[in-house]
DNA sequence: GTCTATACCACGATAGAC
DNA sequence: GTCTATCGTGGTATAGAC
């Protein structure tokens, strides 16, 4: 029971009017600002509506639920991150994929603290737990490829290694959120070094 | 303006009635169960009260706010964790402190999944951000001591190394929460190995 | 000292008027 | 496309029964 027209191509994407596009973009923008400033709980529908100059009900015309607003804002921030990381990884050779992944991800999150807070809050407060494997699988594949390229003995530890790296990145970025003077670039270098010793025994 | 008598020793700790002790313990117990089963949001005051067989207001007689209930449950779970880890670390030699820290912490969290969920939810949804340094400082000191004991060149990276290890532990434990078959012991071993290569170059 | 009853306000969400 | 009005729920405060 779609609340809105579908495009003629029938691809499932809704046709959006110009004002609707503008509103959605605006709502996503203020939601990112609010979540970054006051956390998930602080970003109430009333607060979002007030910053956008409309009412709660009007916000819920453009998005079905508050969770949908936050999800849209999350995906907006996330797509920027994965885009930059993917570009960096592709620019690097197969041997240096994991290092490029680590450095570009830490670098991006350092450059965009509001996006960082948004992504962390969304991951954290997400009710419907999305597949955790989505987080570590891309990195695990990079690690496997890099291991082959360096002629290391094939190990079945790619999953655990990726999980460790992912958790370490989260912790480094979180630390920078609390202490803006923390040197995340050096931390990323140390993490790359640790991984390097494992990949090139 | 204390709501309750203080002990004769004047040490600031309130004297608790037998029934009060029992109620607090019961409330902490049901809160841990609820948070573990349905997350922070699912553990409403009404749900806690219902499981305990009393009313919302009765819960708020024993604790000033919902946050206080959750905090008490969190501290209960946390004290068991730090107790076990501290014992394990003291039993190990100075060289093996970090390894004992990693293995005992991962092991404890594997044995007590409900406590794990409780601790993670509390860390995650905590409004008043308590000092993040409290998380990495003890491990950083173990790392420094172990580095000296092994005669490694003194490095100023203990903080970052501890942050990385802490984040990695969180990720390993979280993964086990979603996939109960995940081999956390092997993951802890890999993490120890990674650290070992750094400490003994 | 322990608890129930009750009322209050903020929040997310729905229904329907304009 | 946006509004007002309203509802259910959640956390909290107070009064008072026992």
Automatic annotation (TrEMBL), chains A, B:
Q: From which domain of life does this come?
A: Bacteria
Q: Which InterPro entries does this one have? A: Homeodomain-like_sf, HTH-type_TetR-like_transc_reg, HTH_TetR, Tet_transcr_reg_TetR-rel_C_sf
* HTH tetR-type domain span: 21-81
UniProt xrefs under PROSITE patterns? HTH_TETR_2
Q: SUPFAM superfamilies attached here? A: Homeodomain-like, Tetracyclin repressor-like, C-terminal domain
Gene3D superfamilies attached here?
Tetracycline Repressor, domain 2
Which residues does UniProt assign to DNA binding? 44-63
Q: Which keywords are on file for this protein?
A: DNA-binding, Transcription, Transcription regulation
Name of protein: DNA-binding transcriptional regulator, AcrR family
